[in-house]
Write a structure and sequence with these properties.
Rossmann fold; binds magnesium ion; 5 helices; globular; single chain
Length: 151
C-alpha cells in the first residue's frame, strides 16, 4: 500500500457463500470513502462474492446484479451514500492499460469506494491503495480473510 504507517488489521473466517455475503455488512462499516481497496486471492477465493455482499450492505445493488467485471473491467453501483466501483484487472498486463482506467478520477469523488480485484499486480494501483483484503481458501467452503486498512 502507498503508506505503511497507521494500518489496522482484522481477520475473519466464513464457512459459506452466505457467510461471505454477510461479512459485507461488517466491511461496509470499516471501509470509509473515498477509499481504494485491493482484493487479493486466487481465482475462486470469493473476491467477487464479497463485493456482492458489500454492494448489498451499502444498498448500492442487489447481490444478483453484481457480476464479475473480468471482461468489462469496471462496474459501477450508486448507493445512497457510496458510489461503488468494482474492477477486475485479471486480464490487464501493462501500466499503460491501468493509466486509462482513471482510478484517480474515481477516487476524487468524496463518496467513492473502489474495490479492485488483482490490483496487487500493478505498482500504480498499490500506490493508490488505502487498504487490502486478502482471501484464502480453507477446507471446502471455508475462507479466511485478512483486512488491512489505513486509518
Ligand atoms: N465461503 C465462501 N465464500 C465465497 N465463495 C465461496 C465460499 N464457499 C464456496 N464459494 C464458491 O467459490 C466461488 C467464489 O467465486 P468468486 O466470488 O467469483 O471468486 P473470485 O472473484 O475470487 O474469483 C463461487 O463459486 C462460490 O460459490
Ligand atoms: Mg472475481
Amino acid at each position: 500500500m502507498g503508506l505503511s504507517k497507521g494500518l489496522r488489521e482484522k481477520r475473519f473466517k466464513t464457512r459459506s457463500v452466505a457467510g461471505t455475503l454477510a461479512l459485507g455488512e461488517t466491511l461496509a462499516e470499516i471501509l470509509r470513502p473515498p477509499m481504494l481497496v485491493i482484493l487479493r486471492g486466487e481465482v475462486g477465493a470469493g473476491k467477487t462474492t464479497l463485493v456482492k455482499g458489500i454492494a448489498r450492505a451499502l444498498g448500492a445493488a442487489y447481490e444478483e446484479d453484481v457480476t464479475s467485471p473480468t471482461f468489462t473491467l469496471v462496474h459501477e453501483y450508486e448507493g445512497p451514500k457510496v458510489h461503488l466501483f468494482h474492477l477486475d484487472l485479471y486480464r490487464l498486463e501493462t501500466e499503460e492499460q491501468i493509466a486509462v482506467l482513471g482510478l484517480e478520477e474515481m477516487l476524487a469523488e468524496p463518496n467513492a469506494l473502489v474495490l479492485v480485484e488483482w490490483g496487487e499486480r500493478f505498482e500504480s494501483v498499490v500506490a493508490l491503495a488505502d487498504g487490502e483484503i486478502a482471501m484464502e481458501h480453507g477446507e471446502g467452503d471455508e475462507r479466511g480473510l485478512m483486512v488491512r486498512w489505513k486509518v
